[in-house]
Amino acid sequence: MSSDDVVAEARVVTIQYTLWNEAGEVLDTSRDRGPVDYLHGAGELVPGLERALEGQAVGAKLRVTVSPEDGYGLRDPEGKREFPREEFPEDASFEPGEQIVVEDEEGEELDLWVLAADAHKVVLDLNHPLAGETLHFEVEVVGLRPASAEELEHGHAHGDDEGACEDDEDQDEEG
Ligand code: ZN
Q1: CA of 80 to the centre of ligand 1 (A)
Q2: Ligand 1: centre distance to CA 122 (Å)
Q3: I need a labelling partner for 77 at 20 to 30 A (CA). Which of 14, 92, 123, 160 fits?
Q4: Separation of CA 1 and ligand 1 centre (Å)
Q5: Is the predicted pLDDT of residue 175 greater than 60, yes or no?
Q6: 56: Cβ–Cβ under 8 A, 6 or more apart, which residues?
Q7: How far is 120 from 103, CA to CA, in rounded Å?
Q8: Ligand 1 centre and the CA of 86: distance in Å?
């Protein structure tokens, strides 16, 4: 078997997966919507899962337990941030659990998750909703192909609907 036959960097891998939390509840699964593509080595998956898939061939089925450190990180108890509601566009909606990008005073973009919002303030969390959680994956490798030059440049896999990549317009900002 050559190295072309296994999961490695610069290859687009198609997987089916199910994710459970420590309590055994299904948090996410591709089984009900079809397999997903990712670009291996680009950090599209949590590090622990990406590492477990390295070197696997099509047909491989794995059960992987990922610690918080290798998943969505440890939970920062200081991660909560409150912002005045008027700092956001009037028509913005804030669904709890929704991810939004906020620019801080230094112009750094921060990924934040909505905890709560009312007419006066928006409470956001620096922690991913799954930060601090041990993750249990069942994952199956169902496809493998070399990444295109464009996928490598973008740092993610493109699906079947070519040309629908949202990154095409703001490539300059990536870095
Ligand atoms: Zn793209």
Answers
A1: 31
A2: 31
A3: 92
A4: 30
A5: no
A6: 6, 7, 62, 141
A7: 19
A8: 33
What domains lie within the chain, and their CATH numbers? 3-72+131-160 (3.10.50.40), 80-125 (2.40.10.330)
* d(C-alpha 81, C-alpha 100), whole Å: 13
- The alpha-helical segments, DSSP class H, found in 3-159 are 47-53, 149-154
Name the token pair of 172: 């300059």
Three-class DSSP labels, 95-141:
CCCCEEEEECCCCCEEEEEEEEECCCEEEEECCCCCCCCCEEEEEEE
Enumerate residues 6+ apart whose C-beta is below 8 A from 39.
Answer: 10, 11, 12, 13, 147, 151, 152, 155, 156, 157
pTM above 0.90, yes or no: no
Q: For residue 90, report the distance from its CA to the centre of ligand 1, in Å.
A: 30
User: What's the gap in Å between 7 CA and the centre of ligand 1?
Assistant: 20
| Structure confidence by residue, pLDDT tens digits, 19-64 | 999 999 999 999 999 999 999 999 999 999 999 999 999 999 999 9
Asked if 158 contacts 70 with a C-beta cutoff of 8 angstroms, the reply is no
